[in-house]
Amino acid sequence: MTFSIVVAIDEKRGIGKSGGLPWRLSRDMQRFKDITLPCTKPGSRNVVVMGRKTWESLPAKFRPLPGRLNIVISSRSNMILPDGVLCASSLRLALEIVQKIQDVADVFVIGGGMLFAEAIKLDACQGLYVTHIDGDFLCDVFFPQISENFKIVNKSDLLEEQGLRFYFCDYKKRGPISDR
Ligand SMILES: NC(=O)c1ccc[n+]([C@@H]2O[C@H](COP(=O)([O-])OP(=O)(O)OC[C@H]3O[C@@H](n4cnc5c(N)ncnc54)[C@H](OP(=O)(O)O)[C@@H]3O)[C@@H](O)[C@H]2O)c1
Question: Whose Cα sits closest to atom 34 in ligand 1?
């Protein structure tokens, strides 16, 4: 079971501050939806996997993310989650659960920092959808270094919204040496 990461990062690879996002970019939110919602398998839905703190950071009216199977990673056995939202104690376990479900298509790990740190190291992580935002937002949560194992396969023009400049970049895991 492979998955991709979806993330927005600043120049210092910052992704979050004081438990939330340091920016609000509607084009980035639209891209997030465009990546995670459309489903490649008819009759199926995609999966979004997130850490407990990212789940808690979502405004109540936006969670669970609609049209997608939401899985929250937490060691807490007493988490109260809405019907249909799954909880797993690790990312590996979440992927095992997903493998057993029939009607799922693509899997996306959507944060936060702690979950990304584990996810990006796994062989199953085959792609990164990254929004690169200009500037240093003095974040307190960071995305790991993007290693040479990932190559850029798509890059947007520089975009601007609310005085912030950013671009979208898709990375794909390199194949065997012969593919590099
Ligand atoms: N810029 C972006 O694209 C983006 C995306 C998502 C989130 N964020 C930001 O990131 C911040 C939250 O990130 P965070 O690192 O503080 O928290 P997080 O990764 O969202 O959640 C951390 C919690 O999730 C569980 N968890 C995470 N990884 C785990 C693992 N590998 N194994 C077992 N349990 C795991 C643990 O829950 P328990 O303590 O319950 O065991 C842990 O305390 C917020 O500021 C949020 O706004 C940014």
Answer: 74
| Mutational test site, ligand 1, from 115, 118, 120, 168, max ligand atoms within 8 Å of CB | 115
**From atom 7 of ligand 1, which residue's Cα is the shortest distance away?**
112
Q: What are phi and psi of 177, to 5 degrees?
A: -50, -40
Confidence check: pLDDT of 23 > 60: yes
Print the domain residue range for 66.
Answer: 3-161
Total count of domains within the chain: 1
Domain of 77: which CATH number?
3.40.430.10
Predicted confidence band at 177 (pLDDT cuts at 50, 70, 90)?
low
